[in-house]
């Protein structure tokens, strides 16, 4: 009897261990089912998943976090200081799959920011779910690419900013940034990200499109600044020449007026004509300078307004 009891107890224990192991193995699937059974994603959230080509598994992970696209006040509450993000995205991921929040940027010139943000934050959730072994392997690939393959200066600067502000989350941020903003990745990383996106390049294209709204204007401003600097130096040189010529004309005018030498008068008049021609050239250059400055400042204003439209700390009307 005691032996039968021991066997029954052992069988029960093994069954419990088996059940526990089965539950542990499928814990994410069970958790996802519980979180999603009464959840219907808003159409705008579904659109973000569609546009970023999320796979079935990454889409499920995205929805598990109940993503919200929020206006300024709500976003500032959900993501103080933009959730600490330093990159071109505007959102935050709350640890332990308790929320993804995306800033509602409505300026059509910045189309792409919400898509990149959604993909970026989803990848934070994906990184959190990696097992110790998986994370070790992925971390090694990310670090190797950062050290030996990354060429994009903007992305490097972004990583360096995270190194200062969030050193403990540095590789986690690399995981999201490389997957959404870097077009050319090593084969190992490229293969890894296929579990999250069916067309990762589409996400990168959104990042490029959004960033171009700023980099394009920055390049134009830099070009105008170079032209203005060169033109200003030329104007200053000609103005110095005008002063010297004017001083020379003033010093010789009385002598020429008293002179009966026709050749001297002719030479003086030629110098006056030369002075007037140089003065006209300078005036034309000044007009050109002012016109270029107006164009440069107009683009700078556009850039400022774009930055205001993605700055959740500013009142909405400031970006008008």
In terms of DSSP E residues, the strand content is: under 5%
Number of separate helices: 12
Cα separation of the termini: 85 Å
Oligomer: single chain
Strand order of the main beta sheet, please?
1-3-2
- The low-pLDDT segments are 19-26, 316-320
**Helix share of residues?**
over 70%
Rg from Cα: 33 Å
Describe the largest sheet.
3 strands, mixed
Write down how many β-strands occur, each being a DSSP E stretch of 2 or more residues: 3
Q: H/E order of the elements? A: HHHHEHEEHHHHHHH
Number of domains: 2
**What do the pLDDT scores average to?**
88
Supply the helix-strand structural class.
Answer: mainly alpha
Gross geometry: elongated
Give me the secondary-structure topology.
Layout: H1 2-25, H2 27-36, H3 43-51, H4 56-64, E1 68-70, H5 72-78, E2 91-94, E3 99-103, H6 113-129, H7 132-148, H8 153-165, H9 170-181, H10 187-193, H11 200-258, H12 262-309
Parallel strand pairs: 1-3
Antiparallel strand pairs: 2-3
Structure description:
The chain is mainly alpha-helical. It contains 12 helices and 3 strands; from the N terminus they run ααααβαββααααααα. The chain has helices at 2-25, 27-36, 43-51, 56-64, 72-78, 113-129, 132-148, 153-165, 170-181, 187-193, 200-258, 262-309; strands spanning 68-70, 91-94, 99-103. Strands 1-3-2 form a 3-stranded mixed beta sheet. A hairpin with a 4-residue loop joins strand 2 and strand 3 (99-103). The model is unreliable at 19-26 and 316-320 (pLDDT under 50).
């Amino acid at each position: 009897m005691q032996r039968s009891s021991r066997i029954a107890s052992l069988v029960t224990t093994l069954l419990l261990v088996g059940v526990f192991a089965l539950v542990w193995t499928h814990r994410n699937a069970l958790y996802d089912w519980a979180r999603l059974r009464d959840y219907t994603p808003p159409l705008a959230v579904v659109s973000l998943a569609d546009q970023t080509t999320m796979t079935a598994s990454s889409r499920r992970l995205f929805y598990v976090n109940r993503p919200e696209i929020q206006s300024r006040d709500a976003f500032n509450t959900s993501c103080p200081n933009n959730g600490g993000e330093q990159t071109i995205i505007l959102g935050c991921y709350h640890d332990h799959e308790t929320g993804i929040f995306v800033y509602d940027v409505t300026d059509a010139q910045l189309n792409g920011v919400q898509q990149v943000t959604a993909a970026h934050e989803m990848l934070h959730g994906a990184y959190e779910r990696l097992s110790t072994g998986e994370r070790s392997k992925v971390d090694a690939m990310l670090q190797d690419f950062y050290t030996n393959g990354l060429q994009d200066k903007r992305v490097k600067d972004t990583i360096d900013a995270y190194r200062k502000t969030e050193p403990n989350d540095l590789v986690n941020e690399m995981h999201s940034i490389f997957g959404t903003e870097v077009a050319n990745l090593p084969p190992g990383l490229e293969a890894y990200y296929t579990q999250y996106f069916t067309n990762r390049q589409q996400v990168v294209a959104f990042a490029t499109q959004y960033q171009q709204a700023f980099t394009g204007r920055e390049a134009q401003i830099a070009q105008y600044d170079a032209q203005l600097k060169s033109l200003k130096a030329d104007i200053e040189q000609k103005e110095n020449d005008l002063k010297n010529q004017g001083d020379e004309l003033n010093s010789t005018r009385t002598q020429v007026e008293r002179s009966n030498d026709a050749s001297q008068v002719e030479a003086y008049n030629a110098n006056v004509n030369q002075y007037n021609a140089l003065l006209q050239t300078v005036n034309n250059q000044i007009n050109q300078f002012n016109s270029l400055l107006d164009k440069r400042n107009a683009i700078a204003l556009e850039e400022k307004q774009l930055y205001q439209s993605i700055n959740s700390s500013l009142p909405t009307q400031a970006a008008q």
